[in-house]
Amino acid sequence: xxxxxxxxxxxxxxxxxxxxxxxxxxxxxxxxxxxxxxxxxxxxxxxxxxxxxxxxxxxxxxxxxxxxxxxxxxxxxxxxxxxxxxxxxxxxxxxxxxxxxxxxxxxxxxxxxx
Length: 114
Fold this sequence. Notes:
The chain is of the alpha+beta class.
């Protein structure tokens, strides 16, 4: 008998949870990069507010956001180690403002539905 290939309720929930989390993490990363940070310090800051993110997800996201013109970065030496510091670009500031407004509007709507 072939193994059950139908997704379970738990599988569907996990997939939807990851999709929801991915979008909110982008907003959180942009918001945290109003202040210049390097990757590890960004991970720590996100973890402090309850948003854990793996390095394997964070660094590709940072590169993608930089490629989209939303972040700028520069290499600097700190504590005798080279670190890449990221911060919002002017376009990133504008996009963050618009995404934040969109988030608040969606949150208000969802609060009325849930």
